[in-house]
Each structure stands twice: as C-alpha cells, then as structure tokens.
Amino acid sequence: MQIMFSSKTFELTDKVKSFVLEKVERLQKFPSLGINQLQVVIDRVKRGGKTTSEAQVEVVAQLKGARYAFKEVGDNLYQAFYRVFNKVEKKLVREKEERRGR
C-alpha cells in the first residue's frame, strides 16, 4: 500500500508521520479489499480569512474498484485524525462485508 502525505499549512514532522503510519497499519487487516493507495492531507482550518488552531484531516483510500474520501475537523491534529480514521475503518468493514456477500 502506497501512503502519501501532504499539507499546505501544517509541518509534517517525523512524529506526525509515525503516528499516522502506526494507525494505518491497522488497515492491513483488509487485504481482500486491495487498498492500493492512501492519501493523507493535513491542514489547519481557516475561518474568516484567518488560520485557526483547529486541524482538518482528509483521507482518500483507493481500493480495487472503488475510491473513498473522508474528512474531519478537530481541535487538534490527533483528534481530527482519530475521527476520520474511525470513519475509514467503519467503511472498510462494511465494504468487506458487502464484497463477501457477493
């Protein structure tokens, strides 16, 4: 699985990348879905033309025959990532069950 990181307004330190990679490893339990690529976009939230301390995390998952995008905002990077990652996992569980039923 290829994992790509990007950000315009947030410094992607090794600590942040390690945190994300640790959580993404849990997606290895879905080998039948054929997750080819995972794009993680981390940015600060802008309101009224000003950058806030809130973080926005977007995850785009490219699977065999499907593409899913998820986005969440949180008070900080970790909160936003936990929220979006929960959405990703729930969707992949449903997708796995649907494919098994076919």
Can you walk me through this structure?
With 102 residues, the protein is α+β, with helices and mostly antiparallel strands. Helix content is 35%, strand content 38%. The protein has a 4-stranded mixed β-sheet, covered by helices on one side. It starts with a strand and ends with a helix. The model has no long low-confidence stretch (mean pLDDT 90).
Topology:
Blueprint: E1 2-6, H1 14-24, E2 37-47, E3 50-63, E4 66-74, H2 77-101
Parallel strand pairs: 1-2
Antiparallel strand pairs: 2-3, 3-4
Q: Which range does the strand content fall in?
A: 35-45%
Low-confidence stretches: none
Strand tally, please?
Answer: 4
* Count of discrete alpha- or pi-helical segments spanning 4 or more residues: 2
State the major sheet: 4 strands, mixed
In short:
The protein is an alpha+beta fold and 102 residues long. The chain is built from two helices and four strands.
Main traits of this protein?
102 residues; alpha+beta; four-stranded mixed beta sheet; 2 helices; elongated
